[in-house]
């Protein structure tokens, strides 16, 4: 039975439409209005819309779905846009309002305040004003526009009047101030000086003070009134205090005067005598002097102070000079004296030591000498002058004699010194070397030593005496110690020598053999060597040190070379050895492995081989040479045999592989394909596989063995898996055939009728047709497919 089905869904085609609401705000549509030519291969059964009725709530775009069903029950759907329209504009009603600016000079309104009941047939969406903010620049009437928008986006506008008023008076802030009268007793103030930041929401027009001029009659506190008027005529007033001060001090002018003491030695003055025309801007109150009476104690210039006070209590002062006179000179009396210079060669005197009772009719003020200090240049008789001055500056003078003497001995300071004898064993000194800063108050005339020359016999401490005489004949002596040293080291002269070891391998030398004429300025005490005995360990150059000491213990050293000889070569004994190459094909030997007990009469220094490393190229017998060197450089050599062997088997590394049979059902493999990097320490000679050929009977996993042999005959084996696959699909050959229906209107065929000689490299497993039975419904050409599967499961198809 061939069952025929219609599973193809209808093709739905829709169109967007625009409709308007009716007078009731409603609209309806049908599916035919949305359908734009939907179709089906077998015919349509129905067209259905999900939404057909609309109201004002649907104004705008609305998505509807058209569902189409065909005669076989297949269903398809598609959407479309139904746009609902509303064109009626709102009715706008407005009202005028008045607003007052706030303290910031601002006012705000809302659309609701201007709206007087605007309406719309569907509903109002928004009310919007073009101006909502007002400031001082908008005082008076302002026209605003109210825009009303309905829910469908239709809008209408209406105007209204907003009257803006400023009714706030200014805020008046005052400050009390203090002002100073000027030199004329006058002062003026301005409203700005009284204003302390008065403000207004819209701006100040003017500041006015009721009083601005002040003079001396206003000194003290005065109340003034500040009136502030804003730009809109609002005004306010506030008071403040202006304190007027007279702080200008009087101008004091004085004059110096000269007066004489009266018969009682007294004098008096008044302030008017000192005043020379003092004045003040507001008038003087008083003139006062600090000193008005004088006595003989005031003879000379006296400073007085005139204090002037004005009517406001301001005070100024100024000084003047009042001169008092006295002209009687003192009576001077003197006496001669003798003084001694001190340890510094200095002597001082005072006027009182020369004065013998000088007097004055009033009082002596001072006694002054023309010379008060004396030094060594003044030894002997000196004339000085005494000047007496009274308290009023009158003075008289008289001379006297001062005799200066120097009786102080010199101070002798010595120092102990150390002398070094020269290369001749001699040394000399002077008095200046012993002197350590001797001094005299008036100066040293001479320094004299009792001993000045020394030689080798004086080595050690020697006492000497220094005598110092000053310029005035005073003298003194003191002792010092002169230590004589011989610090010149001996001159050491050495010579190199050559000695041979005796039968016992020993040798000895003396200091005299090394000495070549050493000498000293005061004589030699001893010659000593640091090394005098040698053994075979000393063969070669040996450095010895000759130490020379003189009679005063000075020491010098010098080196020399003592060469010790040895000429006997070592006895070399060798042995043959066998070594195996390691995994890297290498072998290393040491001289100690070849040495079989070599000896030397002294000591063996080194064992050396000419060849120590071997590789694969050295497999077999190799001759090496052992060289033995003793500690003295004598050497001998002997050969030995090193047999190198390679006993390391190759390392076999295999890999599993997969092979595909060819069109003949055959495949071959080589040892190189199985080898995965086999190695040997020396190198590989051959790779051999036990199985290399495969056919259809081997499809699947096959074990093979890889044998690796190296160049030295060592071999190893390892297995691997060779997977044989048959991936070649059968070759399908078909033929078209013609068959007739039987009496029942039926016909059947087999795969063999369609097959025209299909084949495979390993054989066919099956032939299968997709259609083998036909009815009257199939009359005509029918395409069938022949599927061929081989014995390995590979499949190919072909139609007929």
From TrEMBL:
Positions in coiled-coil regions: none
Lineage: superkingdom: Bacteria
Gene3D superfamilies: Immunoglobulins
Name the UniProt record assigns to this protein: HYR domain-containing protein
């Amino acid at each position: 039975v061939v069952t025929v089905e219609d599973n193809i869904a209808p093709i739905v085609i829709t169109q967007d439409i625009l409709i308007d609401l009716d007078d009731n705000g409603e609209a309806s549509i049908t599916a035919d209005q949305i359908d734009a030519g939907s179709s089906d291969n077998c015919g349509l059964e129905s067209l259905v819309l999900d939404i057909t009725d609309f109201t004002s709530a649907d104004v705008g775009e609305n998505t509807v779905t058209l569902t189409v069903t065909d005669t076989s029950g297949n269903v398809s759907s598609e959407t479309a846009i139904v746009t609902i329209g509303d064109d009626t504009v709102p009715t706008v009603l407005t009202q005028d309002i008045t607003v007052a600016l706030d303290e910031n000079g601002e006012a705000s309104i809302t659309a609701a305040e201007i709206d007087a009941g605007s309406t719309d047939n569907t509903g109002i969406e928004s009310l919007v004003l073009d101006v909502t903010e007002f400031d001082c620049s908008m005082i008076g009437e302002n026209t605003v526009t109210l825009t009303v928008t309905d829910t469908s986006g239709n809008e209408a506008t209406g105007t209204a009047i907003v009257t803006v008023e400023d009714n706030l008076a200014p805020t008046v802030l005052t400050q009390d101030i203090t002002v100073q009268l000027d030199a004329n007793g006058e002062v003026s103030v301005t409203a700005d000086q009284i204003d302390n930041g008065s403000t207004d929401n819209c701006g100040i027009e003017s500041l006015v003070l009721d009083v601005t001029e002040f003079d001396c009659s206003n000194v003290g506190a005065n109340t003034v009134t500040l009136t502030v008027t804003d730009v809109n005529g609002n005004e306010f007033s506030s008071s403040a205090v202006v304190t007027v001060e007279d702080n200008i001090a009087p101008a004091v002018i004085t004059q110096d005067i000269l007066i004489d003491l009266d018969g009682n030695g007294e004098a008096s003055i008044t302030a008017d005598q000192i005043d020379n025309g003092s004045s003040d801007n507001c008038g003087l109150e008083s003139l006062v002097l600090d000193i008005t009476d004088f006595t003989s104690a005031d003879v000379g210039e006296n400073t007085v102070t005139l204090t002037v006070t004005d009517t406001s209590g301001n005070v100024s002062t100024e000084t003047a000079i009042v001169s008092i006179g006295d002209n009687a000179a003192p009576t001077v009396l003197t006496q001669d004296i003798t003084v001694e210079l001190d340890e510094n060669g200095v002597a001082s005197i005072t006027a009182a030591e020369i004065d013998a009772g000088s007097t004055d009719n009033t009082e002596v003020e001072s006694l002054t000498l023309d010379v008060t200090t004396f030094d060594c240049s003044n030894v002997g008789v000196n004339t000085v002058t005494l000047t007496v001055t009274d308290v009023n500056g009158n003075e008289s003078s008289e001379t006297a004699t001062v005799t200066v003497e120097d009786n102080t001995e010199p101070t002798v300071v010595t120092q102990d010194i150390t002398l070094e004898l020269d290369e001749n064993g001699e040394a000399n000194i002077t008095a200046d070397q012993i002197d350590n800063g001797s001094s005299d108050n008036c100066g040293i005339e001479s320094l004299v030593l009792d001993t000045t020359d020394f030689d080798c016999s004086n080595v050690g401490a020697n006492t000497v005496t220094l005598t110092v005489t000053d310029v005035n004949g005073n003298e003194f002596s003191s002792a010092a110690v002169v230590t004589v040293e011989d610090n010149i080291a001996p001159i050491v002269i050495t010579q190199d020598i050559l000695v041979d070891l005796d039968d016992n391998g020993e040798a000895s030398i003396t200091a005299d053999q090394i000495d070549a004429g050493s000498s000293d300025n005061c004589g030699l005490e001893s010659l000593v060597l640091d090394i005098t005995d040698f053994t075979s360990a000393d063969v070669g150059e040996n450095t010895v040190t000759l130490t020379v000491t003189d009679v005063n213990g000075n020491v010098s050293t010098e080196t020399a070379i003592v060469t010790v000889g040895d000429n006997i070569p070592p006895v070399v004994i060798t042995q043959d050895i066998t070594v195996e190459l390691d995994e890297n094909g290498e072998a290393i030997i040491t001289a100690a492995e070849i040495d079989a007990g070599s000896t030397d009469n002294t000591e063996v220094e080194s064992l050396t081989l000419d060849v120590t490393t071997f590789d694969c190229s050295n497999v077999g017998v190799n001759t090496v040479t052992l060289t033995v060197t003793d500690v003295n450089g004598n050497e001998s050599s002997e050969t030995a045999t090193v047999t190198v062997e390679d006993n390391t088997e190759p390392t076999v590394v295999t890999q599993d592989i997969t092979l595909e049979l060819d069109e003949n059902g055959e495949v071959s493999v080589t040892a190189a394909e199985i080898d995965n990097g086999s190695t040997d320490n020396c190198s590989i000679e051959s790779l051999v596989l036990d199985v290399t050929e495969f056919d259809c009977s081997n499809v699947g996993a096959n074990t093979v063995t890889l044998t690796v042999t190296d160049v030295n005959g060592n071999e190893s084996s390892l297995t691997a898996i060779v997977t044989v696959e048959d991936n070649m699909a059968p070759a399908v050959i078909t033929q078209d055939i013609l068959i007739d229906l039987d009496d029942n209107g039926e016909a059947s065929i087999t795969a063999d009728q369609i097959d025209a000689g299909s084949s495979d490299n390993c054989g066919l497993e099956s032939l299968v047709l997709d259609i083998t039975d036909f009815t009257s419904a199939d009359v005509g050409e029918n395409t069938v497919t022949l599927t061929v599967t081989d014995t390995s499961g590979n499949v190919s198809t072909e139609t007929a």
